[in-house]
Design goal:
Strand 1 and strand 2 form a beta hairpin. An 8-stranded parallel barrel has the order 1-4-5-6-7-11-12-13, surrounded by 7 helices. Strands 15-14-19-18 form a 4-stranded mixed β-sheet, covered by helices on one side. A 3-stranded antiparallel β-sheet has the order 8-9-10. The chain is built from 16 helices and 19 strands. It is an alpha/beta fold and 433 residues long. The two termini are 32 Å apart.
């Protein structure tokens, strides 16, 4: 599959040729990551950090922008990550994986020494886990490139990759000579790399067509794209559809629809045309095996499934669609095809949504709509006291906890804070330790 790249330099989104010459610059990172995340993972790279252009605290002109992007999708981050502290901080802020470049390598290995910075990588693995580590095996003329591709070390791509695999969940290979040139990548090097290691391999640098993405997919490699996306040479929609293993699935791929909170809603089947329509309309569309025709969920009932993102599984023979339902999903009227309840399962997110609706469209007699900041704070204090001092039985604790969480949710809405913000902060604290 395709991993979209957002490269940052001097606070802008950029694309460079051979890692040096500026080809394009733009300032729409928020819009880019929203679009890119629809189709797959996103790599955010701080080029200034990679080049060592940092301040006394290790920050760059890109730091705040980078941090703002980390929880906007399935994000991996790279560029100048040279310490355990920095890697842990980025994971705690929302990065799913970190890309380690120069810090992974021993620039001048002596006889008997590893080509890798083994102590650093072992400590990093202990701190964040091997599966969160991506090691860059970027190469110039077949030699590992470091320091923002300004230097090479006397280690071949294949030798370096075989060693790096021991300490990483995947490898990122960039053919530096091809980077940003839109002339195609070096398929022979990629093939040799794929045959040399068993972990996940992501290829980057010069990929310029759907045909080459397909060929790399057949080799068992993912593709990280930059210039081809920004110039319009490759469409993420087309790339996603091309990467599905249609031969294996017989032309129909199972599509699982799940809510944003993770509840499984339904299963259907899609052909290439159905996926294309889904991406164009952002409404989940299937292929009816009984009618031999496309059908968009909700086209009769109005209960559409608004697509937020799509993900293919590791075998490219199943698709997971994250959706927002507009009413019950099942034809019986139930919220999910795997249950009989007509309503969405209770959750803090559902409660928050109801509170939001009460404030935006208050109905006559709505208690929620009458709660201003002063009153809701008073109610939180009152309910907290009842929970901690008055509750005696299990039923009392359940009742008072529900009251407290309701008023906390109201205050959160009035402050513009969501439950996802709270979950993210709890996740950050967990990963920081």
């Amino acid at each position: 599959m395709v991993i979209s790249s957002i490269d940052l330099k001097d606070g802008h989104v950029v694309q460079l040729k051979n890692g040096k010459d500026l080809i394009l610059q733009r300032d729409d990172a928020d819009e880019l990551i929203k679009d890119f995340d629809t189709y797959g993972e996103v790599a955010v790279i701080d080029l200034d950090a990679a080049l060592g252009n940092t301040d006394g605290q290790g920050g760059t002109k890109n730091t705040e922008l980078l941090k703002s992007l980390l929880r906007r999708g399935n994000v991996r981050v790279g560029g100048g990550i040279r310490s355990i502290k920095k890697a842990r901080e980025l994971i705690s802020l929302g990065a799913e994986k970190v890309i380690i470049g120069s810090a992974a390598w021993n620039p001048s290995p002596k006889d008997g020494e590893s080509v890798l910075n083994v102590p650093f990588l072992e400590e990093l693995g202990s701190a964040i886990g091997k599966q969160r580590i991506i090691i860059s095996v970027d190469a110039i003329n077949g030699k590992i490139a470091v320091r923002g591709w300004t230097e090479t070390i006397n280690v071949s791509l294949i030798e370096g990759a075989r060693e790096a695999e021991k300490y990483a969940g995947e490898l990122l290979f960039t053919c530096v000579e091809k980077e940003g040139c839109m002339q195609g990548t070096d398929l022979e090097q990629v093939r040799a790399l794929r045959n040399a290691v068993g972990c996940r391999v992501v290829a980057a640098g010069g990929v310029n067509s759907l045909e080459q993405i397909e060929e790399l997919e057949r080799l068992g490699c993912d593709v990280q794209l930059g210039m081809a996306l920004y110039t319009g040479a490759v469409s993420l929609k087309d790339a996603f559809i091309k990467c599905i293993d249609w031969k294996k699935t017989g032309g129909l791929v199972p599509v699982i629809a799940q809510s944003v909170s993770g509840e499984v809603l339904m299963l259907g089947y899609a052909n290439a045309a159905a996926l294309e329509k889904t991406f164009e309309t952002r409404k989940l569309t299937f292929f009816s095996r009984t009618r031999s025709a496309l059908w968009t969920k909700g086209e009769t009932s109005g209960h559409f499934l608004s697509v937020q993102k799509m993900r293919a599984d590791c075998d490219r023979d199943t698709v997971l669609a994250t959706v927002i339902p507009n009413g019950g999903t099942c034809h019986t009227g139930s919220w999910t095809c795997f249950g009989s309840d007509p309503d969405e399962k209770s959750s803090m997110e559902r409660l928050y949504g109801i509170i939001s609706e009460r404030f935006k469209n208050p109905s006559p007699g709505s208690y929620t709509a009458t709660l201003n900041d002063k009153r809701v704070r008073e109610k939180i204090m009152e309910e907290a006291e009842e929970l901690t001092e008055d509750a005696q039985t299990r039923e009392d604790f359940i009742w008072e906890t529900a009251d407290l969480l309701y008023f906390v949710s109201v205050l959160m809405f009035r402050q513009g804070i969501t439950w996802q913000d709270v979950h993210d902060e709890l996740d950050r604290r967990h990963k920081e330790k």
